[in-house]
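QA checklist item 7 of 12: single-chain prediction sanity check.
[x] sequence parsed
[x] length recorded as 124
[x] structure emitted
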Amino acid sequence: MINDQFMRMEERELQIAELLRKLNLSRPVALTLACLSNVNEVTSRDIEMASGLRQPEVSIAMRHLNEYNWVDIRDEKKTEGKGRPIKIYKLVVPLDNIIKTIEEKIMIENKTILENIQRLKSFA
């Protein structure tokens, strides 16, 4: 484990995840982002244990976060046994910047919705 303190999500992270869900982020993305928000580096297994997500859900969430270039993903060779390298994740964009990006996206979407409502009104 990269961070021994990272055993389960604390109240702060749970609240972050809940608020991100209310902003229409998927459950795995919200939980993963909340886990990453309070640590320097973390493994996929750490996120699974803290959030209750399954490995495929963490992988899908990481793909999503990586598309926005919000995370750094690196491989670390296992010290024992064989198998795939362990993936280590790190949030490389501050959480407040991520929130700002989400806010801007929502503002654009809401503007489009309001414009469409106005267009519909013109037909009524």
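[x] summary fact logged: The chain has a mean pLDDT of 90.
[ ] second reviewer sign-off
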